[in-house]
Design goal:
- By secondary structure, the protein is mainly β.
- Helix content is 0%, strand content 45%.
- The chain is built from no helices and 17 strands.
- A hairpin with a 4-residue loop joins strand 8 and strand 9.
- The N and C termini lie far apart (48 Å).
């Protein structure tokens, strides 16, 4: 339970979970002015001035957790802006407005990224150097929960039901 290190930032109601890879923690600061941070995890004490690799306000989510795939960090803002950031530098690779409001976190499965908007619209895209949308599906029901993945199946929880979806 002993604190190892800390980073100072402004934000509250921090909903998105952090992600970690290769000694770097990526997180969003939450409400008011969401900012995505990349912090080296090998420090001690207050590492705000020494271990913050980069920060970005572009597309910072208030609710959805970031998604790390290889050297790319994907974020979906509450307003539907999907941003692909270089995980090492924080430089924006691309941004795409997919529309809708988002609380659910993006999920990576089967070589695809799945997004679920609050109105039940699912957007599927291929991760990479450019945005490539593969599909858009509409359930027509309110959905706030993130997809769950089990092998080839995706589970979707809406306000009215739980669905299992997979290819035949």
């Amino acid at each position: 339970g002993k604190e190892v290190w800390r980073v100072r930032f402004s934000g509250y109601s921090v909903v998105p979970r952090p992600v970690h890879a290769d000694g770097v923690l990526y997180f969003s600061t939450g409400y008011d002015s969401p900012t995505v941070y990349a912090v080296k995890t090998d420090g001690t004490g207050d590492v705000t001035d020494t271990h913050v690799l980069w920060k970005s306000k572009k597309g910072g989510p208030r609710n959805a957790s970031p998604l790390l795939i290889g050297d790319a960090l994907y974020c979906v803002s509450d307003g539907g802006l999907v941003t692909c950031l270089d995980a090492k530098t924080g430089a924006e690779r691309w941004g795409e407005n997919v529309g809708g409001a988002y609380s659910a976190s993006p999920v990576y499965a089967g070589g695809r990224v799945y997004l679920l908007a609050e109105d039940g619209t699912g957007t599927v895209f291929r991760p990479g150097a450019e945005y490539e949308e593969l599909a858009k599906n509409r359930l027509g029901e309110k959905a706030l929960a993130s997809y769950a993945v089990d092998g080839p199946a995706l589970y979707v929880r809406t306000a009215k039901a739980v669905y299992r979806v997979e290819e035949e």
